[in-house]
Design brief:
Two copies of one chain form a homodimer. Chain A is α/β, with parallel strands linked by helices. Chain A contains 14 helices and 14 strands. Chain A has a five-stranded parallel sheet with strand order 3-2-4-1-5, with helices on both faces. In chain A, strands 6-7-12-10-11 form a five-stranded mixed sheet. A two-stranded antiparallel ribbon of chain A has the order 8-9. In chain A, helix 12 packs antiparallel against helix 13.
Chain lengths: 345, 345
């Protein structure tokens, strides 16, 4: 018959859309998958809102015996209620693919999601880069989060950092625990005490909370219960700056210290400056009789042209700029290593 | 009193959540902003679903006289119904900020959005990079879209390309028109005839359509009415590849031709190869008496070490790799330009 993935939305059964309710009511069997998101509801409240029984789908059953679910969907209308927007987690995409492979008609009813609700911070959704989940400490180090923060910053993009939870044990990361874990990694180029950060709690719930500031500012704030998430902004439009102040109460100091430059941009500036210094300070060595001062001068000018290119392209064509400045560095270093000029890096 | 932004969701009044309905019913005045998204509804149908009159908000009124709206919200409960998830467009964030500045309590009721519904393609939302809107031809060239495609690809991220519409004239971009505009720009490094592309139409509606393939494959397909959007995938997980085949009917050829390498990665390979060729083919020139063959050889070995670094770091530390290979190129070129070695790039 059919498999329908029905989004519950952000908080509770009242986030179900009329379409979701209608679809759920038309199902022969309803299951709820309640382990990937923190919701303010349970199967009984969902069942009451829909007016049909809803069976909880335990995590293991969902991942290992989705086969049973799909077999049921071969002969009945099966609906699976999922927190947030249904396909945000990869697991549910697998279920959809598997159903399609078995020739079972599928449908997805969409709902509200933290991935777009985060726009309540005033940060543009269009500028979100890769999204990551910070794992609970026992599940591993924050390496992927830190790498992603660096990569998104490289392109001036915001990073949404979702915080891990273990619905079985009831353990979950708070904004405070997450900030401490990120600071403890001591990778200040990715996340340090000056990194502008936005803490968001319970987006779409009755009592959402949004605070922007330095990690220290956020540590001083009590965000109350889950779900929590972090957003680390990239380059900011003036409207986003205003939003962080007005909506998130961001102190001006936290904004001033914020330089969202990525590694390529940092290297262009660093190498460019050291090449400029080298060109200014270099002195011609005693030249071999066959090498003219003119030749060396021409080569230095050649390097300087590449430096100028790098400065010109630094904003719009960063890859070209980094290649140019590094090439210039190579030219200058060859002259130095051959003993034709003297300078120190 | 209050200003509440109420998300309509993806398609029509049935995408309103129970929370949205409840909130709308409690408002003293309701407006609908229907010009930023294509919806399959109108003020009358919204009014019927809510059971209260809904006034359309003309575009000019919304942008220029939001002042009137906010003044009304000072003394009454005002609700503004907005397609998709309410804060996806910057305009609505401005309204929220302005209300907060005037001390008007605000609230946002979230709803379904194309930005997460696009997960129905099977592509991971977590790997979405910057999102862009392709403008209607009379509004300008596709430069920003092309630059964004290149940048996202650089980090292996997917790009959601929203397609512009003009609700006043009724003109809108289709997947076909968008693909033609992107191909016409002749910037194949960003979007060319081999670029793996996914066309999505009417996500969250009763009859969504998802097709993955080459631009040519998509041009051959009739996607029917709006709203349309494009997704250009970045690096793909095997589960995403499977999804594109099973959900989007992607032909294997379209996947084989797909190399989601960004500019930095391309430059590392290109420069690395030309340096390797140079080192292999170079011949020592007749050296000045004061320059020993040993010195030149040492410098070539120095360059080769940087080349090896670049190859080593090519995947994980692309910026360092590009800087290394370009530095090596500078060293080799200095030797060539000084007439100490002979080779051609």
């Amino acid at each position: 018959m059919t498999l329908t993935l029905i989004s519950i939305g952000l908080a509770d059964e009242r986030d179900l859309s009329l379409r979701a309710l209608e679809e759920a009511r038309s199902c022969d069997a309803l299951y709820a998958e309640l382990y990937t998101t923190v919701l303010d509801t349970d199967v009984d409240r969902l069942a009451a809102a829909i007016g049909k029984p809803v069976k909880p789908l335990p995590r293991s059953a969902y991942e290992e015996s989705s086969d049973a679910l799909l077999r049921e969907a071969e002969t009945a209308k099966v609906g699976v209620l999922i927190g947030g927007d249904a396909l945000s987690a990869t697991t549910h995409v697998s279920l959809l693919i598997e159903a399609k492979k078995r020739g079972i008609p599928t449908r997805v009813i969409h709902g509200s999601s933290a991935l777009t609700a985060v726009a309540e911070t005033g940060l543009s959704l269009y500028k979100l880069g890769r999204t990551v989940t910070l794992p609970l400490p026992e599940k591993g180090p924050p390496d992927t989060v830190l790498r992603t923060l660096g990569e998104n910053r490289e392109h001036g993009l915001h990073t949404l950092v979702l915080l891990d939870l273990d619905t079985e044990s009831g353990d979950y990361l708070t904004i405070n625990r997450a900030i401490e874990a990120l600071l403890d990694a001591e990778r200040s180029e990715a996340f340090g005490v000056d990194t502008l950060t936005v803490g968001v709690a319970r987006l779409g719930w009755e009592n959402p909370d949004i605070v922007a500031g330095s990690p220290g500012d956020l540590l001083d704030h009590d965000f109350d219960g889950p779900p929590h998430a972090l957003v680390v902004p990239g380059r900011l439009h003036f409207l986003e700056v205003e939003a962080l102040k007005v909506i998130g109460g961001c102190p001006p100091e936290a904004l001033e210290g914020w330089v969202p430059r990525g590694e390529v941009a940092v290297l262009i500036v660093r190498y460019g400056e050291s090449c400029r210094r080298a060109v200014e300070k270099l002195e011609y060595a005693e030249l071999p009789s066959e090498v003219s001062r003119e030749e060396v001068k021409t080569l230095i000018e050649h390097a300087v042209r590449y430096l100028e290119d790098a400065e010109h392209y630094a904003e719009e064509r960063r890859a070209t700029a980094l290649a140019s400045v590094s090439y210039a560095e190579g030219i200058l270093d060859a002259l130095r290593l051959l003993g034709l000029v003297e300078f120190e890096w």
